What does this fold into?
Amino acid sequence: MLIPCPNCGPRAEEEFAFGGPVRELPPLDGTADAKAWHRALHGAGRAGGALPEVWYHHAGCECWVTLRRDLASHAFEKAPT
Amino acid sequence: MESREGNRVQYSGAMVIAKALGRNRGWRPIVAAREPNARYDVVVIGGGAHGLAVAHYLAARHGITNVAVLEAGWIGSGNTARNTAIVRSDYLLDASFRLKHFALGLWEGLAQELNFNVMYSPRGYVDLAHSDGELEHMTLRANAMVLRGAEAKVLDRAALQARVPCLELDAPSRYPISGALVQEKGGVVRHDAVAWGFARQASRQGVDIFQNCPVEGFEIAAGRLQAVLTPKGRIACGQAVISVAGQSAVLAGHAGFELPLTPVNVQACVTEPVKPVLDCVINYNAGLSYVSQTDKGEFVLGGATDGYGSQARRGSFARLEDVLARAAQMFPFLSRLRLMRHWSGTADMTMDGNAIIGETPVAGLMINAGWGYAGFKATPAVGWTLAERLATGKSPDLLLPFALERFATGALIDDAGIGPYPWLH
It folds into this structure.
């Protein structure tokens, strides 16, 4: 799989560490209840269409990048970052 | 329409010899081709080893035979046939250990029970430690196992070399081997035979098994399951079980609820066959590479997940290289063997790396999912306990910790202590 790093261009997957699907975490001010945290922590990462994910390019720009990828075809599309 | 009479025969050594003398003509199909009834007491969705085991134990232990198993492909064609066939129960956490150790007890008698040779081979499971700290952790795990009534040993380097003579301990290595945890009752079981053995025995007892019959939807009224919808038509049912591994999230979506799962890709491969040299299953823990040699002589190799979410059923070359490099570290002679076959499958990995078994938000609909790449060893225990849940309406104690609600309540069973990062489990 070639991962299109927005800073370095397409690079081999071995250069990256996977950080998982983008998680919309509740604010850390004590207003969110346990249910909201459960949804945020456990609800991410389902299949179906392109999913926004974060990757760490450790062998390149050393940046976390957000990319959308289709889990079945592994086709990437650039996400607005 | 084929009668079930062909299924009723009892297999025996004499029968194998007699059929062989008759050029193996006259074997009857072990799953009869039928049209589905309008209604079943229980519909099992997914004809893998888990689903077929549920059907078998429903009939054998509870006398419930108005059961249908619906399989989208052919039986045992999914993760049942893609795993590396390893069974063991060397788990630290109580819930994980108890379910798998119960399964290990069932594996021992399964060939007799099913009248089908499932080739359970208790050849020993050897889990390598690569530091003194890791060996101490394995000692903790071994002690926990022994306290719960299992057998386990911790070997130092000399004892490990005696147990596995062909293991390379002395090569210059980034991850030297410092010892191992050994469970001699662990080993391998012929996974295709498990699927076919359960299918045949379920079928003999009156269970209907349908292949090429995917479930495309559910009919739910007032929060209760009424029927499943298939290309063979609507099939009404009292209860149903979703047991479809990598497709679990899709089926749950049809039923209108979400599961805390991420699909990941897991690979395995076999080498060309060579003479017997390795008599146990061995697992390299710095990274992951588990190796065993089949009765035919092939080395079976498996590793960790590809490390990111995937439904591609197409492996990452980086992971395959990693698995092979670690296997060659243990057994340098492997580097001269060619790979014969290489495959991958979609594993449904949960947020704590453990399975989800039991009720769903839809009344009458049960789930058995989230086994990731660790489900094969639990097959008979899942069948036994889930059949009991379906028949009695009460979850056995072994199943209670695996309920879906545990993610909302925080009662996670995280053996690896990793957290909600399924691709790392």
Notes: Chain B touches chain A through 25 residues (CB under 8 Å).
